[in-house]
């Protein structure tokens, strides 16, 4: 009961003031006349204060997504088809076109079943443009009555509209949650009061993904008649300019039970509990939509973009499998160079040429072309930034304790430097892979962004500080750099 009152500040304030008037009358009935004026003044001031507080909520403007027309859909089809062709080409790429170190990873061959399936999916999407019906999804937070709304609508949906999904809004909606709505052209977003921040953000995301959204203010019967238009106005103000006024609808899918008292002819009184009828007529009328081509175009566009992302993920997996042997080759070359010519502190700038060649080889795998001079510049910047970030020192501190268990190896002149060089070269290579994968999906893939690469580098470094990973790297390095010491142990 307390929680319900807190949702209704007008009702709570009224009850408080009524109680105050009752106390005044109990103390001295003569002050009631004077007190009534003060009470009504307080009600007006209190209501005004509450309204100002509500209206002072920060308003975050929702930028409507651009309209999707047939030209945009056709362009999305072409981009997806090109990405599928690219995947097919790279799956069938002969070994001679790939860095020599990656040959061991080329056990995979062209996968005609995968390519054929992806092309069939794209064909099905093109056929969706001829669809003559719309699909509805009902979403909302817990306890807003969305299931009741969905059940009620299932019996009365107009021809040409079908219910395809019902989804509960999580604390933070992610891509897996939105995937439940992939087939929907129209989303009915159910709320039971003013929009919460998660609800507002989800509506914003739905609009950005080109969904048509209707907002249903459910459970109106739980509010006083004077409160309902106030709440509707609050929702309307938060969604102004992006959702049409007629797309915000007040409903009561399952009004609260009522106790009915009937006086019978014999003078007795009969009481019974009745369920008031649902108030869905405004929503049902709004759902009487003709098949609007823009809704279907938006759905097909969204699904085509999702298919393209799926193909890109497959492409990234193929490239990563081929990139890992390249990275491994360069990490052991760097280790051997540092082991043979140890210096007091590992100077990554001294291996700029080696790292530049790795950048060129990895860039070629991801179709990010670098000249040798560009690659040297990137390698130099990468090495100096790794020193500034303290990654060199941290790598040495992490590896040194693992080498102490190999007494003879630990005293070998360049073992620590060699292991650190291998580790940091691997981290740099994996950071480049992460960066190139992101760039493959970016509209600015032609612009090199050193800051973004450094962010990827730090994330990879943190993810590869596990003792098990470092121990494996050390064991592999010992067998390569000082095999006689490993045998002696």
Indicate the low-confidence ranges by residue numbers: 1-19, 29-37, 43-47, 49-59, 96-110, 485-489
**Amino- and carboxy-terminal Cα gap:** 74 Å
- Helix and strand run: HHHHHEHEHEHEHEEEHHHHHHHHHH
What's the helical proportion of residues? 55-70%
Care to count the β-strands? Answer: 7
The 3D shape can be described as elongated
The DSSP helix count reads: 19
Strand content: 5-15%
Can you list the strand order of the major beta sheet?
A: 2-1-3-4-5
Describe the structure.
With 489 residues, the chain is an alpha/beta fold. The chain folds into three domains: 2-55, no CATH class; 133-290, 3-Layer(aba) Sandwich (Rossmann fold); 323-488, no CATH class. The protein has 19 helices and seven strands. The protein has helices spanning 2-6, 9-27, 31-55, 70-91, 112-127, 146-154, 175-179, 197-208, 227-238, 281-286, 293-340, 352-365, 372-388, 391-403, 407-411, 415-440, 450-463, 467-481, 483-488, and strands at residues 134-140, 161-168, 186-191, 212-217, 248-250, 258-263, 269-274. The chain has a five-stranded parallel sheet with strand order 2-1-3-4-5, sandwiched between helices. Strands 6-7 form a two-stranded antiparallel ribbon. The protein is elongated, with a radius of gyration of 33 Å. Mean pLDDT is 78; it is low at 1-19, 29-37, 43-47, 49-59, 96-110 and 485-489.
